[in-house]
Write a structure and sequence with these properties.
The chain is an alpha+beta fold. Helices cover about 30% and strands about 25% of the residues. The strands form five sheets. Strands 3, 7, 8, 10 and 11 form a five-stranded antiparallel sheet that branches. A four-stranded antiparallel sheet has the order 1-16-2-12, with no helix packed on it. Strand 17 (about 300) and strand 18 form a beta hairpin. Helix 1 crosses helix 7 and helix 2 (about 25-50) crosses helix 7. The chain is elongated and about 95 Å long.
């Protein structure tokens, strides 16, 4: 519940001068109101840090941390959208970005049973795993292919440029060695898959984004077989970890540190957007603390007098418990504008007495 702006305005006028009204104009009040609201809002975070260093209280209504959390909760937005390009739904109104995370998704599982290296005829042999409408990249209908590189030839380099994984298998490798190399390649280089192996069998898991309109196509060859992909329940929420932009190139250049779909990352690009990796194929969510809207005491002039208009007004976006502090803050600032330092002194003294009583 917001604080009614006309109540605060009328109280400020009355306290500023009980005998003479009007020397705090609506324009001046709106300027002072905006600054007073921002000052109170910004102090929440300083007060919260200070409260963490102080002993707590078993009563939630008397505990400083719980009190500040209650006031901040009014400004918290949960589950707002983030586009696949990283544009934050809250835009420039975001004061503090708390969490970026993906929705729970179904995932798919495919088992690949490998033959020995000698069973692979040439370096162009492919294991073809296509996942329609999944986040798996890239050619045609977001297919993803795995390629064996037996000799490091130019053909395989060309394949690598087209989002194939090169695993460096040799002709004399056993089926278990090839399975292990394939598993390691998937985990090291594919941001969208995870893999485990047992002997010569590798299990690959990847996300499902949309309902499956058609069966996925799989290609088995020689002594290597691929099972039909199956559903395997839902993944939990996956939280994106924030990385400083100065560390981004270092992290992305390391095969060990490079983020995966199960451990994604982002960095802040500007106030209203982030850069995500891996790039999601569907929108994700974010939680943040929103800046309070600018307060406006709207009015219409009738008979040379400003009369309150609710249609053009914006109330204060602060917890109702802040109404007294808000009034005092505006009066303190008003004493400077109307050149009455005594008004500021009285308000500061009253505020000091109030805080002393609260801290007993």
């Amino acid at each position: 519940m917001a604080i009614f702006i006309d109540t605060v305005y009328q109280r400020v006028l009355a306290l500023a001068n009980k005998e003479q009204r009007g020397y705090i104009t609506p324009q001046e009040f709106n300027l002072l109101a905006g600054k007073a609201q921002n000052d109170i809002f910004e102090m929440y975070f300083h007060d919260y840090k200070t409260a963490l260093l102080s002993p707590g209280n078993q009563s939630k209504t008397s505990d400083d941390i719980d009190t500040i959390r209650e006031k901040i909760a009014m400004h918290r937005v949960v589950g707002d959208s983030v586009t696949t390009e990283g544009v934050l739904g809250g835009g420039s109104q975001i004061h503090w970005l708390e969490n970026v995370y993906s929705k729970p998704q179904s995932h798919r599982v495919v088992n690949i049973t490998f033959g020995a290296g000698g069973d692979i005829i040439d370096e162009a042999s492919l294991i073809h795993l296509r996942a329609y409408y999944s986040p798996i990249e890239t050619l045609e209908e977001t297919g993803f292919n795995f390629a064996f590189n037996l000799n490091g030839g130019s053909d395989d380099i060309a394949l690598a440029l087209q989002s194939y994984i090169i695993i460096g298998a040799a002709v004399d490798d056993s089926d278990t060695q090839i399975a292990t190399k394939f598993k390691n390649a998937v985990n090291n280089y594919s941001p969208y898959h995870s893999a485990t192996s047992s002997g010569n069998v590798v299990t690959v898991t990847y996300n499902q984004i949309y309902a499956w309109a058609v069966n996925e196509s799989v290609t088995s060859f020689n002594n290597t077989t691929i099972s039909e992909p199956t559903n395997s329940g839902s993944t939990n929420y996956v939280t994106y970890e924030e990385i400083d932009k100065s560390d981004w190139a270092y992290v992305m250049g390391s095969s060990k540190l490079k983020p995966l779909a199960s451990m994604p990352t982002y960095y802040r690009k500007n106030a209203s957007s982030i850069v995500l990796y891996p790039t999601p194929s569907s929108a994700i969510l974010c939680d943040y603390i929103k800046k309070p809207a600018k307060p406006v005491w709207g009015y219409a002039v009738v008979g040379e007098k400003a009369l309150y208009s609710s249609n053009t007004s914006t109330d204060f976006e602060l917890h109702p418990a802040e109404e007294s502090n808000l009034t005092n803050k505006i009066l303190e600032l008003a004493g400077i504008i109307i050149n009455k330092p005594g008004l500021s002194e009285v308000i500061l003294r009253n505020q000091a007495v109030k805080e002393a009583k609260e801290n007993r």
